TrEMBL record:
<protein>
    <submittedName>
        <fullName>Uncharacterized protein</fullName>
    </submittedName>
</protein>
<feature type="transmembrane region" description="Helical">
    <location>
        <begin position="26"/>
        <end position="47"/>
    </location>
</feature>
<keyword id="KW-0812">Transmembrane</keyword>
<keyword id="KW-1133">Transmembrane helix</keyword>
<keyword id="KW-0472">Membrane</keyword>
<feature type="transmembrane region" description="Helical">
    <location>
        <begin position="93"/>
        <end position="115"/>
    </location>
</feature>
<feature type="transmembrane region" description="Helical">
    <location>
        <begin position="54"/>
        <end position="87"/>
    </location>
</feature>
Amino acid sequence: AAAAGGIAVVACTAAAVVVLETVPVMLVVVPVAVLVVLVVLVVLLVVRVVLEVVLVVVVVLVVVVMLLVVVVLTVAVLLVVVVVLMLLVVEVVVLRVIVVVVVVVLVVVGSHGAAKRSRLPTMGNASTPTIAVRTMTCGVQAARRRPAGAKACLRLYSSTSCSFISRPSACGSFRHLGA
């Protein structure tokens, strides 16, 4: 019985030694393992939050960029449409102004030419105007270079137009001197 008791004491002592040796290890290993697991969980949580924030920022940036692109494209298209419409309006207005100016110039030139033609006497044929040329000093130079008939002809027309008009019937067969 003493041997059995000794064996039991040895066994209990060995068990106590094993327990006493493993308890400090368990007291160190378990908290460290729990801390490692907690740190890993916290890191994973932080990474998840950071990834979600980055994802939200990226989505917001993409939406903002798309809206800006849409706004810029819309403004560009509207500007092009406005410029084209303005060019069309300006073109129509400019064309109308050009047409009005051309018509006014033609009317003024035409009426001036018609007024000149209506004042000229004719050479016997009513539809053919005679040549009327204004001399520099109302016929003084023309009278020096022409015969006496030219002087009479110049006197005849100098009171109205101060010019020499070539009429074969009244002034002989000489031509006008020039302006």
